[in-house]
Amino acid sequence: MSTSKAAPAVSAHSVVEPSPRTKRIAGALVILYALITLVPLVWIFLTSIKSPPDSISYPPKILFTPSLEGYCNLFTTRTRQTPDYIAALPPPSGVCDAVTRERNMVIAGPSNFLPRFANSLIIAFGSTFLAVSLGTLAAYGFSRFKVPLADDLLFFILSTRMMPPIAVAIPIYLMYRQLGLSDTALGMMLLYTAVNVSLAVWLLKGFIDEIPREYEEAAMIDGYTRLQAFFKVVLPQATTGIAATAIFCLIFAWNEYAFASLLTSGSAQTAPPFIPTIIGEGGQDWPAVAAGTTIFLVPILVFTILLRKQLLRGITFGAVRK
Amino acid sequence: MTASHDTFSDKMADAAIRATPEPLAARVRGLSDRAIAWLFIAPTIVLLLAINIFPLFWAIYLSFTNFRANRPNAVVQNVGLGNYSRILNDPDIWASMQTTAHFVFWTIVLQTLIGFTLAYLIDRKFRGHAFWTTLILIPMMLSPAVVGNFWRFLYEPQIGLFAYAVSFVSGIPTSDIQMLGNVHLAPWAIIIVDTWMWTPYVMLICLAGLRSIPDYIYEAAEVDRASPWRQFWSITVPMALPFIMLAVLFRGIENFKMFDMVNLLTGGGPGSTTEVASIALKRDAFEAWATGRSSAFAIVLFVAVFGLANIYVKALNKVKQR
């Protein structure tokens, strides 16, 4: 693509403004890429509302009768029964009951999905709260005071994030076994807090650096103590930055898999290691997996759209601020 | 807006002050800046020492022993540098490093090429570019584990959408498109998913780079009648280079540590064709339970990431200074 067709350079504007033709071609290519790249996500949603036979038909079905079976299977465990047994049952009490009986099965009880999803929520929100609280304090400290060895400390904080998670997981596994933190929500929360606090300190230091010191100094001249100035002047100014940082921490903790799969197995297991283990009769129950995936991804979609202006800053640890 | 913030933070500050006992409150009010700095920074440092640094030293200690986590009561012997010499002479470990290098190299090449092209096209500012950019960004925010797991379904040769689409375009029978089962295709299967997921990341950073180039430079080039091709290679690329390198640095570190997506897609297979370093480490540590040896491997990996990142950051700073 040519940068700008050398339109007669009458005004300074026309030089850097691409020609309409260039724009059209660029737009078409970007839209094509966007559409292709969204296919897998659309497919996750479509699979979640297919019946199991539809989901594995060849060629892949684009038109089909929507079914709630995937969602029903996600939330329940089922047992196979004889047709006679099912015929003798009272009429089905809900959609899932009816769908399950058509497959000659009855609902045996709830599946583990809800508790795992709840674990994800508790651990993600808990660790985000801790990481952002600690991170805000530390970021303010680094931003406003002459801390000895500040650069070294900041680099140390960042470097903890460079360690491969599996390498960290080995001693953590042993340590948690000693402390009784294995497979507990508290253990996972502390671990995610430690991983996220490095991101929080780096991002928030950038945000707080941007708040003029004069604001606090003026407040302190008016009789505020340093702590009051921090709470009443700096924190309100940093609200946007704190919110953006919180969402980044939340997304990391929500998506994390390596630690979760190695350090949790039962009561504290989060959704990411659980979803791949959803199986039906004769292999992976893809509509149920897709249903779980859809429910798991929707919050992130919402957050991504809320966050799009701060995204760049978050993913580069504040290195690129735009 | 300010009013609500004021009352909120007022309440927080008042609550904080009221919650502190009298003598302490008097002292808190009079805290010196120095004390506040340490008070604010210490919790973060303590957390990182407890959850990152202490385990790291423990791992260093273990790496000199023959400790096995599944036999906690066995006598632990000091084996000196034995674990390290075994690792550095182990052909399987070197094979996993080679697999990692192949994976890191190709994902970076593809993501940089596609990402930069996309950023360049988006920077033509066609109508609706902001909307399409947000759509393109979605894959990178999602959980690599949960979405990677779903790609297993897309890759299924008999029923998967990917095999169907490839066979539809190329005419190759779907039974030959064993993306995850074929030793030659499996490494590319993980490269494709990673590229799908992380190209938006490189694109976003490149876009920031392109937008940081001031218009007047292009205007001056236009006055000097530099061709669009010349402008691209003499202005656009060199000025966006620090950003491109930053993206490469972040992607390089992340993919060197790659675990979740590969673990779910191939688990290192078929055979060990996709056994990247983290997967090899996990097998050694959590399947073979050779804790001592795997700790040594973890330390080697950590030193490698850290060393490479340091060298790269130095190069990056040189480019920035130019």
Question: What do these coordinates show?
Answer:
The complex is a heterodimer of chains A (322) and B (322). Chain A has 322 residues and is mainly α. In chain A, 67% of the residues lie in helices and 5% in strands. A two-stranded antiparallel ribbon of chain A has the order 1-2. In chain A, a hairpin with a 2-residue loop joins strand 3 and strand 4. Chain A is globular. The two termini of chain A are 25 Å apart. Chain B folds into 2 domains: 2-62, no CATH class; 84-321, MetI-like (MetI-like fold, Orthogonal Bundle). Chains A and B meet through helix 1, helix 2, helix 7, helix 8 and helix 9 of A and helix 1, helix 3, helix 5, helix 6 and helix 7 of B.
What top-tier CATH class of the largest domain in chain B fits best? Mainly Alpha
Beta content of chain B comes to under 5%
| CATH homologous superfamily grouping of the largest domain in chain B | MetI-like
CATH architecture of the largest domain in chain B: Orthogonal Bundle
The proportion of residues forming helix of chain A, as a percent range, comes to: 55-70%
The order of strands across the largest sheet of chain A is: 1-2
CATH topology of the largest domain in chain B: MetI-like fold
Shape of chain A: globular
The CATH homology group name of the largest domain in chain A: MetI-like
Quaternary arrangement of the chains shown? heterodimer
Question: How far is the N terminus from the C terminus of chain A?
Answer: 25 Å
